Amino acid sequence: MLNVASREQVRIGDTTITYLPDGEVRLYPTEVFPDSAPDGWARHTAYLDEDGRLPVSVGSFLVRTPSYAALIDLGLGEVDFEVPDFASFRGGRLLRSLAEEGLRAEDIDVVLFTHLHHDHVGWTSNVAPSPGMALGEVGGLTFARAMHYVQRAEWDHWFGVEDVVGPHLEAVQRPLTEGIRFVDDPDFDLPGLEVLPTAGHTPGHASVIVSDPGAEQRLLILGDVMHTQAQVSDPDWNFKFDVDPDRSRSTRREIVQRFAGGNDIIAGGHFAGSVFGRIGSPAMTHRWSTWNLAGQPAPVDTAAV
Ligand SMILES: [Zn+2]
Q1: What is the reported pTM?
Q2: Domain 8-131+139-299 has CATH 1.20.1530.20
Q3: Cα 188 to ligand 1 centre (Å)
Q4: String of b and e for 9-20 (b: at least 16 CB within 10 Å)?
């Protein structure tokens, strides 16, 4: 039985990548992965909690290089609500997690969104919306000094759209409108961060490859290409809110095949237990191995074969 991930860090060369918890979501697994019905989760009970729900980590990745500090995604924000028969959502810890790394909001140079679903943009401004609750007064960007980036297709998909799973018009879109920058513009240049377009979950979804000149090993921040380690060995399981199900499935398969058996570290921000790991070779049915922080992979997916 795994819980949501704690703050944990890996280093490649002079770059550190730290998972900063903001909160958690508890999902009814068959409800949100319809392809897993009726009994697909029997192979993955290790990832469920004692009530049979899937604990989903929610937070941000802090990438620190010698020249900048970047946050990849911004969690849920300060929310606490339940959607009956679907999920519970609780967030609000991100700035404390950042403080535990010795940083304040004004120390962040870059914010990069993998996509603009509500659980990735929660700290964009000082307020995060909860269903049925009045919105507080929006006072501007939390990371006011940072450049904010996203893929242009993602911004265009959501801009002006009010959708409960998307970026809130007042709390997220309006504060970003003036300053948003696009990773696909020619002047995008953040040494060590490469954007890998991975459309499917959303139209402008992006994963991020982190590299360092002093290391051969790289690290892939998945975004929501996968929500659970179970999708490493069951990549055909789509998530209920994948905007383009066929594309989502093919993108997930491509990622599994490209990184299977390799040395690169995979970071799944929604994964339970530990967010860092590797994808095993096809001979191991692409089994997930968690990345222990001493640098050696250790199998955790005892139910996945
Ligand atoms: Zn998400």
Answers
A1: 0.94
A2: no
A3: 24
A4: ebbbbebbbbbb
